[in-house]
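Ticket closed. Logging final result for Cell surface glycoprotein CD200 receptor 1-A-like.
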Amino acid sequence: MRDMIWIYAAFILLLSEAWSLGPGTNSTSPSFNDSSIGGDVVIHSAFNKGSDVNLTCSNKTWNETLYVIWTIQMKYRIECKISLDDGDRRVDTCKDGKSLYTSSTQSYLHIPAFTNGDEGVYKCESVYKGGIDRYEINVAITVPPRISAWLEKEDNKMVAMCKAERGKPAANIFWNHEGNLSDVKTSSDKDGFFTVESRLEISEGMNTENLSCAISHPYWSEEKVLEPKLTKGHVTWLCVSAVAGLVFLAAVVIFAQKKLMILRQCQQSDSSPSKTAPTEDVEEVEPYASYVQRVNSIYNSSADLFT
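Final structure:
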């Protein structure tokens, strides 16, 4: 009954106090923006992926608090509630690892290993002796993108590409060399992750050895610098082309050598008959001469018989 009286008195008084979001034991420092709407405090806060997050909604000590209730509307789940009163009575319809804890000074909502699914609007009511605090905390996640850079051929031109993929929020890309920057494309998927792609046309004769792109993102304390190189597929194509060219050149050389050998053989065959012709005549004439001599000897023998 005493609790109900205090709650009724708290709602009648409708007293509000302004205070800031405490980081508690977060492993990352949140970014936030506070504003007041109709006595409620609205906060926009972002936390790194995988960090442990503690949210508070009053600067009153727990000894002064009658109860605290969190109404949570996450992006991919239905609304749920987590509450705790001064009699240690708890309610938890979320059942996803979030918990209300109390310390010697105040209570806080603990979110372990913050993920993309924890994004949403966290509304809190903290009723204390003499007043009530209401907060609306819009919680977002900070996710580092996957980054890459490469060179590629496009319409007989060399183009440098720099890409920051599936980050949240969107990354920023800068080039260290002036060129014909055609466009920067930014797209998002169904989960709210952003992909940014920057394209730099390289002018003819430009030295690409010192070319680099810098990518900045709230998750990192420093920019990431990448030097674009020819893609593996393009390098493989160049190697195949070079090998094919060498094979073709070797084939041409072999073909030319064979043609030259055939030509030399033909020249030698054209010059050899004039030297060997007498020998061939002798070989063909000698049998006839032998026959004539035998015939003559026969005639001579016959003449001797008749004389």
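Helices lie at 2-13, 232-271, 273-306. No further action required.
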